[in-house]
Amino acid sequence: MIIGTEFNGERLVDLFNKLEIATNLSESFWIFTYTLILVLGVTMGVSVIAWLERKVSAGVQQRIGPEYAGPLGIIQSLADGIKLLLKEDVVPAKGNAWLFTAGPAVVVIPVFITYLVIPFGQHIILSDSGIGVFFWIAISSIVPLGLLMAGYGSNNKYSFSGGLRAAAQSISYEIPLAPCVLSISLLSGSLSTVDIVETQSKYGLLGWNLWRQPIGFLAFFISSLAECERLPFDLPEAEEELVAGYQTEYSGIKFGLFYVGSHLNLLVSSPFVAVLYSGGWNSPIPFFENFGQNVSTLSGINESFSILRPVIEVAITLSKSYLYLFISILTRWTLPRVRMDQLLDLGWKFLLPIALGNLLLTASFRILLIN
């Protein structure tokens, strides 16, 4: 009897172990599926940004832009990517081959990781961590190391100078970002990106943090533009001074990875502006979601509305993000490039004091409310 009990116990333990393995395999499969969907979506977003930038710049300069590669030139980015893949990969003879090869990867991979904490909908997020916004700032600070590695490994004074400029610029403009994010976190009472969006969901357009933090919004937007090295802040790769900066010696797909990293960074910062200051997936029309829920309940089509709701949330988030993308692209083709000393003065002498003063005012306001 004792032997039979022990045998049954061992079979139960084996069964539970198999069930646990099956659960882990199922979780791993869904995590891989979600990650693959996100990577494919981000890759398509980069191609859309490249096409949009060419079309907007053509409109600003009264040109046509890409026209023949597909309808309205939509697959021009795909053609450029194939061309870069087929080009020869050249490594400088006296350069550091390991640093030269690792530089583009260090630039691109951290930007992909930051998409883990971007909420495209109420339940459409890969990792709802409690430090979501600071996770983005921490991970994005790795990118300048890749630029510095690329410049140093190229054995070229122009490349190294561009890498140093990129590091100096990133440090100068990441510091004002942190007080702006802290101000939003103080108003929301959380560092989670989902909680920050939820606090803006009560009054539609009027509940956005954009109206409660206008100074912080301007500082955050300018700092994110400089973080992405967009004009007028593209000093690390100024053609007139640095012959394209840290990417002078690169060719082929490694050269393309730097542009992919730049567009990815812009594609990350725009959703963060939408999440922190524009209500994320919430509609700008007040009470729109409650009205939709009431209609679905009365009509008996609750299931179809629950299926459409994530699609609507993603569409609202992407529309807000691409609005800020359009403003960033328009800024590039409107404003002239600044000098390096003006760039650093703007970060250290203007944006940093404004961001710290805004944080002090927000903290004082919160203390008054608590008291």
UniProtKB/TrEMBL annotation:
Catalytic activity: a plastoquinone + NADH + (n+1) H(+)(in) = a plastoquinol + NAD(+) + n H(+)(out); a plastoquinone + NADPH + (n+1) H(+)(in) = a plastoquinol + NADP(+) + n H(+)(out)
Coiled-coil residue windows: none
Gene Ontology molecular function: NADH dehydrogenase activity; oxidoreductase activity, acting on NAD(P)H, quinone or similar compound as acceptor; quinone binding
Record's GO cellular component terms: chloroplast thylakoid membrane; plasma membrane
Membrane-topology descriptor: Multi-pass membrane protein
Principal location listed in the UniProt entry: membrane
Stored NCBIfam families: PRK06076.1-2
Family: Belongs to the complex I subunit 1 family.
Name used for this protein in its record: NAD(P)H-quinone oxidoreductase subunit 1, chloroplastic
Organism: Myriopteris scabra
